[in-house]
Amino acid sequence: KMKTPYRLLLVFLLVWTAWASEPPEGEDLSFFVPDIPKVETEDVIKLLGQARALYDKASESPATAQAVATALSVAVVTLPPVPLYRALRLAKDIPADAQKYLPAAVDLLAGIRSFAIAPACLDRPGIPHTTAGQFKYLIAANLFDCEAIMPYWTLEVLRLALLLQGDQRVLSAFFHNTSSVHVPPEKGLTHISIYESGSTDNTVLWLQVAEALWTAAGIRSFVVTNGSLTRQTLMDPYNGKFYKQHRIQFLATLRNAALEPLYGAPRGAYDYVYFINDVFFCAADLFRLSHLKADIACGLDFEVWVGEKKGRMPGVTQRFRRSLLSTPATASTAAVAAAAAKAKNSSSATPVWHAAMKRMSEVHLEESARQAAADARTQVAKVKPRYEFYDTWVSRDLGGNPFVKVDPITRDTRTIDGLHRGWPIPVKCCWNGAAVMSAIPLANGLRFRAGLVEDGECDISECSLFCEDYRRLGAKRVAVDPSVRVAYLPWTKEFHGKLPGGVGAKVPWVHLERNSGLTELEKQWSDTQGCMSVQCIPLRRGTEEADIHSFRVIDLAANNYTHMFLEQLKQPPSPPFEPQSCNQIMGPYGATNDGSAFDDLSISLWGKNPIQRVTYTANSTLNSLQVHYGTASAPAHGGSAGDPGSLELQPGEYIISALVHFDDTAVHGMVFGTSKRRSVTIGGQNYTMGILPRGVSKAIATPCPGASAHVGRYKLIAFAGTADKVMRSLTLIWS
Ligand SMILES: *[C@@H]1O[C@H](CO)[C@@H](O)[C@H](O)[C@H]1NC(C)=O
Ligand SMILES: *[C@@H]1O[C@H](CO)[C@@H](O)[C@H](O)[C@H]1NC(C)=O
Ligand SMILES: *[C@@H]1O[C@H](CO)[C@@H](O)[C@H](O)[C@H]1NC(C)=O
Ligand SMILES: *[C@@H]1O[C@H](CO)[C@@H](O)[C@H](O)[C@H]1NC(C)=O
Ligand SMILES: *[C@@H]1O[C@H](CO)[C@@H](O)[C@H](O)[C@H]1NC(C)=O
Ligand SMILES: *[C@@H]1O[C@H](CO)[C@@H](O)[C@H](O)[C@H]1NC(C)=O
């Protein structure tokens, strides 16, 4: 028989083990991410100073611009994953005037990279380089609260821009033989356009570093920080209800803002647009996409999961997926200027080449050490990170059906084989975190847009509509290359191999060519030219979630919404909707389908009996309402729960304004303004301070709510509505 203390101990151990095998609260869901030193605002300001110093140097003359750009392209070559010995070979024979700026260039890039959370890219990516320098590209992005991504992203975008431009050194870093690349002067040009608005972390500061760096490197950059586009609250001028701007409308507006440089340029200024979300990517991978010469080409985007939980990491937001709270950080303009001045001063005591290279080699070492540490943590972790294909909302396979998250992620039988082999496959639509698209339809006037829901179009994402518009306009060559991968968090080495969902390991381009993978793609594209059906999964009405139960198949050839949209663009922007005469019946507000209807208008004798007294009961909702019109009293409507209250009007005093608070089940209360300048609240809640609780809306229930000229011209004469034990809905009648 066991002695009691032992039994207790055993019980304790059992309980403890059970507890310990549960994932603890606040569990680390980013153990597979390399740790980086904490980035202070001063660190970024210092880098900004260095970047500005180079930028200023480059602005002095075309000759210094050339020299600084050359130095920066050599510096880009020294970044991981290109081994330093290979980089050094390329750095040897650079012109003497560029040599001068090399230390500062390498020092700046080393500084940025030392703060970068960097996923491992392949140093021999197995991609072609025949498009280098042959086309004009615009790299576009919308950024928002993504400071953790910025150091890596900034440098990788620069590397991509240089690859696309056909920069000999950056190409040579990845390819054995680049003597076949002939860059026609002025032909291959890459520009960058970024639109940022509303960030409260250090994204803006990082973008300032990026802009100075990219420009100094000779890449023309259009960077808008602190842009004025935020999701608006709009008022319906007819019933005074406030609502949030349609999310898709807002996102489309943001994307268009990033493409302003294209829209404002002459036709032919750009051949292709690279639209890149705030994702982790490898420049060489995205460069590969340009070789598909598709109208829209994408890779695959992955989320990282740890067991049943999404991997996460602070400072990564992805506005186009979800929004998170973040901690504000600001840098005064003066502080930036001071740091820039200081950097300029110290750069007169130029860092020497040897010291700069030493710094970069430390960055390589630290980065691989951090990577090794992350790998080691992954090795011992009970639950390993798992990759799951993300963008099932936008992606459509060749038959027009959504991608799924399990093998095979695209179900069309014509492409399953290709997917499993890792070959590029034709699809109807994709976005997947980053996409390359032909600039022609956009140059011809197409824009990102929301669905023409009023006209019967499906309420789907701006990217889905974009694919549909392209298809209607004849741009039907859309492809997903499974060898091109981006992710919302940094990845482990396994990311380049076989992935869940039936995604084959990355396939070298030569392998595709040898095995007619590209001929197959061309053939499937031409075989499916006439196929115009695609499945639509609309947003649930009034929500921001896709309603998978109300999917339907759309024939893109049936209704030409693209045409309708383009026609609408030609119309001069319609002035804000202004009712001809003011609507004097405002509402209903609340839930009109519940409760029984009442209407006090006849008791008020159409205003001859003015409102004198209003009594009510309310708890969190308005539960009953009884109005005394002159000598006549209307019946009490609603139930009796809650606290009673009343409003007494003085002789000759009228209600001349009203604000109604309500949700989709009941009316919560009202705030009246009277002709004697009194403000009176009806209901149990006082919403006059601060933000409305979730789900509660407000409406200005005074006629012509948007027009100040009408203020005070109307008086409230009666109420109508629906009620049971609570006030379900109210309509206000004015004269
Ligand atoms: C590099 O490629 C060019 C053109 O394809 C070829 O003529 C040349 O022999 C190659 N050089 C080497 C070293 O392989
Ligand atoms: C951003 O713009 C708003 C107005 O558009 C301005 O009030 C604010 O100070 C700006 N913030 C910064 C950091 O420039
Ligand atoms: C920069 O150097 C000049 C002269 O060398 C000095 O007068 C000035 O105070 C320095 N500025 C800063 C910000 O260090
Ligand atoms: C839709 O309209 C556009 C613009 O008028 C036109 O170019 C296109 O050919 C039409 N597409 C279809 C499928 O009807
Ligand atoms: C308020 O009263 C209504 C009607 O009796 C009742 O259904 C509701 O639960 C009450 N709400 C609160 C918060 O007490
Ligand atoms: C509602 O709150 C505001 C601000 O605190 C206050 O001025 C007002 O008197 C309050 N109204 C009622 C009815 O409590």
Automatic annotation (TrEMBL):
SMART domains assigned: Jacalin
Protein name from the UniProt record: Jacalin-type lectin domain-containing protein
Assigned keywords, A-Z: Signal
Transmembrane segments: none
Pfam families: CAP59_mtransfer, Jacalin
Domain Jacalin-type lectin stretches: 583-735
Record's signal peptide: 1-20
Taxonomic superkingdom: Eukaryota
